[in-house]
Specification:
This protein is α+β, with helices and mostly antiparallel strands and 147 residues long. 19% of the residues lie in helices and 37% in strands.
Length: 147
C-alpha cells in the first residue's frame, strides 16, 4: 500500500498548492475594467440569397485586428441540407457571404458545420468543421483564404 499512500499525499499537496496560488476575484475587481465597445448588429450580407430553407446563423467569428474579421455560419438550402457560408469584413465593411468553396460537393449527406475559425494576421484566415459524406459518415474539412 505504500504506492497508494504516496499518491494520496501527492494529490493532497497539489490540491493545497493549487488552491493557495489561485487569486480570488471579487465583484469590485471588475469595476476598473473598461466598458466593452459594441457596434450595431447587422444582417450578414448575402445569406438571405443562400438561405432557401428558412434557417441561417453565424457560428464562428475571428478578427485580427478589429474591423478586419471573418465569420462562418450555416444555412439550409432548398433540399433541406445544412450548408456553410463565410463572410469577410475589411476596414469595417462586410462583404457578401458565400458558400464555403468546394464544401457543397463534399457534403453529399447534407449536414455540414463550421466549428472553428481563426484569422491572424488580418487577411489570412482558416476555418474547419465537418460534413456528412454520401455514406452518412462525418468527415472533417479545412478551408483557408489569403488576401
Amino acid at each position: 500500500m505504500p504506492a497508494q499512500e504516496n499518491l494520496r499525499r501527492c494529490h493532497s499537496q497539489i490540491a493545497t498548492t493549487a488552491s493557495s496560488k489561485v487569486p480570488r476575484l471579487l465583484p469590485d475587481d471588475f469595476r476598473s475594467l473598461p466598458a466593452p465597445r459594441a457596434g450595431r448588429a447587422i444582417e450578414v450580407p448575402g445569406p438571405g440569397a443562400l438561405n432557401n430553407g428558412g434557417s441561417a446563423g453565424v457560428t464562428s467569428v475571428s478578427c485580427a485586428p478589429a474591423g478586419n474579421c471573418a465569420a462562418g455560419g450555416g444555412h439550409r438550402d432548398r433540399g433541406g441540407h445544412h450548408q456553410r457560408f463565410v463572410a469577410v469584413e475589411r476596414d469595417g465593411h462586410w462583404g457578401m457571404a458565400i458558400e464555403v468553396p468546394g464544401l457543397g460537393a463534399l457534403n453529399a449527406g447534407g449536414n455540414a458545420e463550421i466549428t472553428s475559425m481563426s484569422c491572424a494576421p488580418a487577411g489570412t484566415c482558416a476555418a474547419g468543421g465537418d460534413y456528412t459524406d454520401r455514406s452518412g459518415i462525418s468527415q472533417g474539412f479545412v478551408v483557408s483564404q489569403t488576401g
